[in-house]
Amino acid sequence: MAEVLLDIRGLCKAFGALQATDNVHLQILEGETHAVIGPNGAGKTTLIGQLAGNLRPDAGSIHFSGEDITPLDAPARSHKGFARSFQITSIYPEFTTLDNVALAVQAHSGHSFRFWRAARDEPALREPARRIVEEVGLGARADVLAANLAHGEQRQLEVAMVLATRPRMLMLDEPMAGMGTEESQRMIEFLTHLKGGLTILLVEHDMDAVFRLADRLSVLVYGRIVATGTPEEIRANPEVRKAYLGEEELE
Amino acid sequence: MRGHRGLVVVLAGLALLALVPPVAGMLNQPFYIDLLRRVMILAIAAVSLDLILGYGGMVSFGHAAYLGIGSYSVAVMAFYGIHSGPLQWLVAIGASALVALAIGSVSIRTSGIYFIMITLAFTQMLYFLGISVDEYGGDDGMGLKRLSQFGNLIDLGDPVAFYYLVLAILVLTLVIVHRLVHSRFGMVIRAAKSNEARTRAIGFSPYAYRLVAFVIAGAICGLAGALYVNHTKYLSPHIMHWTISGDIMFMVILGGMGSTAGPVAGALVLLVLENLLSGWTEHWQIIFGPFLVLVVLFAKRGLAGWLAGGRHG
Q1: What is the assigned CATH class of domain A1-81+168-251?
Q2: Is ipTM over 0.95?
């Protein structure tokens, strides 16, 4: 059995009377791709906010690689090797593709109180960035302003920036959001290629993607994890079918 | 300074500035040396504001504070009989940096409208402090006892020599800011302006970088203050008035935020227009106001956008 990399223990978060995260226990194993699915309003965004370090939980704790990271903020979690992407494309539109990725490399290359040398002339930043840009298939678009990339390319860029931080674990917040069928297929292929090397927590609406990529799934309903298991187990779970999959099949 | 065309425009502009004293001498119009020297001093202040406003996204509505601290440092030292230029100017830079550190460490924790209001409030506090200290002339201010002394090196009493010193400091400021904004440090503050959530998520904590940028901008503007009080030979608390902060901000917006040399053009146009229009009618602001509105509406990248053509980070 693989080791537990991310251990979420009894996480609770309420907004007024709304219990958005309700005693969530979840263990993500090293090397697995674990998907969290749930209907709209299930509390996925709130859960992600707490895992990313942007929201303080009311109770419970988050352990990463055996260390309690609950008090750490987002930059500190990034330095522990816990990286995230955003549901809404979050890049630097007025910088080039390569600049975007080089910034992520820079964030993990010591402090940036270096005032004189042009960052764009530093091979230590540009070369790793260029490798990653090529790896995600944006090599030909390296010098294009990120604002001028197609939506699917921007999503790829976002993944490239996350990879450039050399993470141990990726948290991908709906990486297929707003993508056309063809772009989604390409992203799924790319994530399949990443899988195995990295631990991935995938929060995704696209059921096709989830069932193709995930080793295990957890179903979040009204802030609670109602089931965790392999894709087959989840498909067969009557409670899940009632709460979630039924709706999907109707669509 | 964008690309080759940008660099050519900047060098041509600086060459024209260098030609002002001989041309003014030939035309027997020393007034222009005085006007352009004032333009360049305020341009240094505007370039320093652009570092935090245009590149760092910190809309400081209190940049006049550092013009004031720089001016007071020089004038107060002169008041007590310390006339050494290097010492006065170092104190001006250091004191401005310290005040910027204090103001920045509080205000950078906020953003948006709160940041604007806090920087404005701090500067108004300094302004009222200046008005209330009767020792140094209070509301009326006081004359600068003696110009900053640099021994045999340079005599600020010589208008042309002082002019070229200001030009040299302006060029130095442009080079420093240009290097800064392209360095690793500059990339962080620009990234944090562009997308703060992303910047934190990839592992940067922007606060310290922003604070250092704020302090550097304050220090440079403090030096502009030291130049300014030597230029006017008079210390006035009104240099810290919020309208002066507004003027410096207009220079940056007019010239082009996030363009290193743009604010120089902004300072030139603003002050020359002010000069021409105010000679024509005392209600010159009625013309000037709509002009600014049009620039903001139709040339979001300011004069630098027109002059330099294509965008180059």
Answers
A1: alpha beta
A2: no
